[in-house]
Automatic annotation (TrEMBL):
Protein source organism: Pandoraea horticolens
UniProt-listed GO biological process terms: regulation of DNA-templated transcription
Protein name, entry field: Transcriptional regulator, LuxR family protein
InterPro entries (alphabetical): Sig_transdc_resp-reg_C-effctor, Tscrpt_reg_LuxR_C, WH-like_DNA-bd_sf
Alphabetical list of Gene3D superfamilies matching this protein: Winged helix-like DNA-binding domain superfamily/Winged helix DNA-binding domain
Domain HTH luxR-type: 300-357
């Protein structure tokens, strides 16, 4: 394939990502052709935890990517040496170089060499305080750099950084718009990877999950439940939604009398950062102590003031006998009011009535 054709295809893929019409996997595929590589990866390193947030790849076995993400990224100093470099910086390393650090020796001798990889070349797409995101190619032989395509590579580099910024801005704008409809003290939104990495979240989520007794927390940009059993359920649900592309719900325990109701959905192009594996998570904090007011019950169900007062106390957990003592009314009078409430709400049992009332709880 001619260099002009491969550059046009690579450039078109990057522009499509920036416009929300394609994903980063398309960029990885075309980068292999344009840059003359045996494989390519689009990779995000988390600087605080020194782990991998996400990977899109072409040309590698899944086993190799899993080994890298779980272990050998710790020894990959090829990009880490440029953690303070600006976006657009290119880096290169090969098996032919003299590797003086222990990390280099482990990375090349125990990971790259056994997988017949002899060279990697990458460009930093985004580099901030939290993450380093790069497009990297890998070759089974060492290729000496030439300056024949300098102009095209410079243009390609600019397109990559612009596309990444555009997709991140689109997700940020969508989150900000949706968050205007939420009460940040009770609910929040985030975009996560199937492993629980939080790619972005709506304003206020760190406060919602930031209580000292909160069981669901943000820990180094990961969504974590303090109880291992429920953490496993959360991770499994995220992965299931990513695979099935179907929404799911999960209720997670919190402190006594509270719980988190989570709704997980696969995301479209405006919010998925251009990644195949991105899941939207809505988090609602529920409490048994949140009881609908008498006014809300009266207005919503067209009740009398006396009926609304009884309904409010029943939702708060009192029995008819206890309501009789609190309200100073006989049980026969209260049962008559309860019958009227059941008729007006269309319920047949008191249990149905209480479940219906929870819909009005703040």
């Amino acid at each position: 394939m001619s260099n002009d054709v491969s550059f046009r295809r690579a450039s078109d893929a990057v522009r499509a990502v920036g416009a929300g019409d394609a994903g980063w996997l398309d960029v990885v595929h075309t980068a292999r052709e344009f840059l003359g590589a045996d494989a390519a990866t689009f990779l995000c390193h988390d600087k605080q935890s020194r782990s991998v947030r996400f990977v899109e790849q072409s040309g590698h076995e899944a086993r190799l990517i899993e080994e890298y993400a779980q272990l050998y990224y710790r020894y990959d100093d090829s990009a880490r040496r440029f953690w303070d470099a600006p976006a657009g910086t290119w880096y290169s390393s090969s098996i032919a170089l003299k590797h003086e650090s222990q990390n280099d020796r482990v990375f090349w001798n125990e990971f790259m060499r056994p997988n017949q990889l002899q060279q990697l070349v990458g460009v930093l797409i985004c580099n901030d305080d939290d993450t380093l995101t790069a497009l990297s190619i890998q070759r089974t032989h060492v290729v000496e750099p030439t300056f024949a395509n300098t102009a095209k590579i410079a243009e390609y580099e600019r397109q990559l950084t612009a596309a990444f910024a555009a997709r991140r801005a689109a997700a940020r704008a969508s989150l900000d718009a949706l968050s205007q409809m939420l009460d940040p003290t009770l609910e929040g939104l985030l975009i996560a990877s199937p492993d629980g990495w939080v790619l972005a979240y709506a304003p206020g989520l760190d406060v919602l999950l930031g209580g000292n007794d909160s069981q669901l927390i943000l820990n180094q940009r990961r969504l974590v439940h303090r109880q291992p059993e429920w953490q496993n359920r959360l991770t499994n649900s995220l992965r299931q939604v990513n695979v099935s592309r179907q929404p799911a719900s999960l209720v997670l325990p919190d402190s006594w009398g509270h719980a988190y109701r989570t709704t997980l959905r696969p995301l479209g192009s405006q919010m998925n950062h251009g990644l195949r594996a991105a899941v939207g998570v809505r988090i609602e904090r529920r409490s048994i102590f949140n009881v609908p007011s008498e006014t809300a019950l009266r207005q919503h169900f067209s009740l009398t003031q006396a009926e609304a007062r009884l309904f409010h106390h029943l939702v708060a957990g009192l029995t008819i006998g206890e309501c009789s003592e609190v309200l100073g009314l006989g049980t026969s009078t209260l049962r008559t009011q309860l019958s009227a409430i059941l008729r007006k709400t269309g319920c047949h049992r008191q249990g149905e009535l209480l479940r219906l009332a929870t819909m009005l709880a703040p």
